[in-house]
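Re: the request from the purification team.
They wanted to know what the chain is likely to look like in 3D before they choose a buffer screen. I agreed to run a prediction and write the result into the notebook, where they can find it.
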Amino acid sequence: MNTIAVYDGFFAHLRPTILLLFMVLVGPLDPVPVVAQDPGSIVTDRPDQTESAESVPAGFIQLELGWVFTREENGNETQEIHSLPETLLRVGMGHGLEVRLGFSGFVFENQFATGESQQNTDTSETGDAEIGFKYELGGWSGGQVAFLGDISIPMGQSDFSNQYVDPSFRLLVAHSLGERLSLGYNIGVEDIRTKMKAPYTIALGVSLSNRFGAFIESFGAFGLTESLGASHSLDGGFTFLASDALQFDVNVGVGLNETAEDWFIGGGFAFRLPHKDQSPSLNRVPKSRLSRVTSRGEHESKRSADLP
């Protein structure tokens, strides 16, 4: 497949949607309170799978970008996938509400087999997009609770698209375990119209310093439709807070059962606008990073093996 043609077709299809969403979402924002308020350090929804229970502050726009490489071996067949840029645009609307537009990236797949006859197949495709919202519900049992809802937009091709407009929902919970530790977990329902499953995540985050953070996480999904298997994975990573509005991250993980990918690695960054040129305060400990890498979980679910 011609990669340039894929790019051109994708942007031609997406341009009117982006323009409409920009006018609808950014138009109502009031620039006046942005100057007055201090939003604190950026809280992202990457690099882990656990969505944070905090929305973007009112009047701010946050963009999160990343790359992920996955590898899976099945007998003498090996599959390698690069996805980039995994994109999430978040717009703070106020009163604990944010609206979101995501894109799982361009997918570059390489499949090859070893043995008597070697085969190598390269594929370049686009992934799906999604639009949704996050709403902070308030406190619960000493923690913070939010609700996330989104709808997939079937823009991708082949195995990397859901092929349907499909709703998904998650309940997001976060607990502070002291000044430097935090615990986050998510439960929900995804791909309700197609291969419905119940995703779960639980992540422990730690602030190593005023700039560096780390996390370790268990995540996966249980199949809710007939013959759809469960998948379980473990990952961890680090974040670097370059300023209150800019964060870099890396992560690595492994699959814990046959339906999960064998291993994966990724990295990315996130920034918030309007940007105030301000380094992280030495007197303030940043929040532990609890978030997710969206599209890797989607790709993993598409390739989950059926139960016998």
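For the purification team: The CA atoms of residues 9 and 203 lie 38 Å apart.
Please add any questions underneath this entry.
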